[in-house]
Amino acid sequence: MEQTLELSVFRFNADTDFLRYYKEYKVTVTTYKVQKLIDVLKEVRKLDVHFSFETNKQAYVKVNGRATKLDTSIQDIIKCLGTSLKIEPIADNRAVADLVINDSDFNKKLAIFDSIVDNSDKSKYQSYKHLYYISDILRFNPDFIGNAVFALAIDLIQKYPSKENEILEKLSDENNGIWLYSSSCKKFFSSKEAKNLDDKVKFLQRKIFNQLSNESVENKKKEIRNNLHLTGKTRSTLAQENCLIGEMKKLWQGA
């Protein structure tokens, strides 16, 4: 079965163009020839040899505003979005050659884990590039450490459990850290991928919250002990106070 796609494709060459623009193409897809999104882009290149895109199937572009992997079935895209598709780079404000972007800002954000990561971790971070660029937070706060760092943090905690506290501390910056995260569920083609990111961030936020709660509990215990020393309270009173602190801790952890 043949289907015709009506495409509006983002075009821009940083060396020759002053303005970004969209160019219209019609591409015929079949179940035996054009099967993946990357195949559609290859068909566009046949129509325009100057058209540029990443050839890695694991790379992402935006299709009708949704982050979509180049390896995605074109039939799945048609079922979800129809045959009129707007294709853009994952970050149009970073475009240098059509769908290819300058990702230097993304790479710089990994510096937060320089003392922890090895080459395999750096490679893993690259697979989370689309998570970084789908965030709207970057539009008004370019210093936001980014969703890719949060996704990698889960991997690092599993790989280096002894460094968990250090990792969580790096994420908890109140100005640029994980507390700025906002759900991007409508920005993914895959709803499963969107939920996965949300779940990871909530997991990390709870860990940080619990870590802060534990520190608060310990500080409160020290305060009580100091008060006991000053007021001469009995050990039974101390036990009651510790029981109360334990209940407070449960409430914090369950919040």
Please outline what is shown here:
By secondary structure, the protein is α+β, with helices and mostly antiparallel strands.
Tell me the layout of helices and strands.
Layout: E1 2-11, E2 21-30, H1 37-47, E3 60-63, E4 66-69, H2 74-81, E5 84-89, E6 95-97, E7 100-101, H3 104-108, H4 119-126, H5 129-133, H6 137-140, H7 147-159, H8 164-171, H9 191-231, H10 235-254
Parallel strand pairs: 1-5
Antiparallel strand pairs: 1-2, 3-4, 3-5, 6-7
Helix pairs in contact: 4-7, 7-8, 7-9, 8-9, 9-10
Task: Tally the helices.
Answer: 10
Uncertain stretches of 5 or more adjacent residues: 231-238, 251-255
Shape: elongated
Helix fraction, binned, reads 40-55%
Would you kindly provide a written description of the structure presented here, covering whatever features stand out?
This protein has helices spanning 37-47, 74-81, 104-108, 119-126, 129-133, 137-140, 147-159, 164-171, 191-231, 235-254, and strands at residues 2-11, 21-30, 60-63, 66-69, 84-89, 95-97, 100-101. The protein is of the alpha+beta class and 255 residues long. The chain has a 5-stranded mixed beta sheet, with helices on one face. Strands 6-7 form a two-stranded antiparallel sheet. A hairpin with a 2-residue loop joins strand 6 (95-97) and strand 7. Helix 4 packs antiparallel against helix 7, helix 7 crosses helix 9 (191-231) and helix 9 runs antiparallel to helix 10 (235-254). The protein starts with a strand and ends with a helix. The relative contact order is 0.09.
